[in-house]
Amino acid sequence: MKALVIVDVQNDFIPGGSLAVPSGDKIVPVINSLQEYFDLIVATQDWHPQNHVSFASNHPGTQLFDTIGLEGTSQTLWPDHCLQGTWGAMFHPDLHTEKIAAIFRKGMNPGVDSYSGFYDNRHKISTGLAGYLREKGSPELYFCGIAADICVYYTIFDAVREGFTATLIEDASAPLNQEAFVATKKELSENGVKIITSDNLKFS
Ligand code: VGL
Ligand code: ZN
Q: What is the structure's pLDDT at 203?
């Protein structure tokens, strides 16, 4: 059984949004065309309160994309994005959502960021995604979405840690930083993650 995890395909991560990822819009039709190959589809949403620690606007004197120390970890400061209930937090309007069986939201705790769809960045609070997928029979997991080098990457890493089989669908994912993505792909494949393109699914 195959499950597709669609990570953060939200307006703010797409050109026109506050933290736009180049080509974020290009992957939406690819994701739509893949959905028929899956038995189960779930999605994640970045879902921040206005006072979220990852917003540069909450740290006077800092610049966008600065890194600050935060309880022994480093935190990148982003533009305000994916504010709970706003347009920027909604799925891209062209994304087909009919088959999405469950949505897992993350980044709701004001004091801690959450790149992965499974756990917050301190690995303390679970979204319940791993338990949900296990109850569904621990399907083979396929991942796509935005940003490929950030939230998709962290989500896949946690999937592997949780013992799932994980595959990244590269042409259905868009990175914020292309160079960082090259490095994260290498790291993922060294950890047993398969990297494919959508054609591999369609013609297998
Ligand atoms: C993301 C930065 C901040 C992502 C979320 O979805 O990749 N990146 N919050
Ligand atoms: Zn965020």
A: 77
Q: Is the CB of 46 under 6 A from ligand 1?
A: yes
Q: From CA 78, how far away is CA 19, in angstroms rounded?
A: 8
In Å, the largest CA–CA distance within the chain is: 53
Q: Which two tokens stand for residue 50?
A: 């206005």
pLDDT digits (tens, 9 = 90+) for 148-172: 999 999 999 999 999 999 999 999 9
Distance CA 145, CA 87 (A): 18
| pLDDT mean over 115-119 | 98
Ligand 1 centre and the CA of 8: distance in Å? 8
Ligand in closest contact with the CA of 117 = 1
Query: Residue 78: CB within 6 Å of ligand 1?
Result: yes
Please name the residue whose Cα sits nearest to atom 6 of ligand 1: 151
Architecture (CATH level 2) of domain 2-49+82-200 = 3-Layer(aba) Sandwich (3.40)
Q: How many helices (H) and strands (E) does the chain have?
A: 5, 8
Q: Token pair for residue 56?
A: 């540069």
pTM score: 0.98
Which pLDDT value is given to residue 169? 98
Per-domain boundaries in the chain: 2-49+82-200
Q: How far is the CA of 201 from the centre of ligand 2 (A)?
A: 30
pLDDT exceeds cutoff 80 at 63: yes
Q: How far is the CA of 46 from the centre of ligand 1 (A)?
A: 7
Residues taking part in catalysis: 8, 106, 151
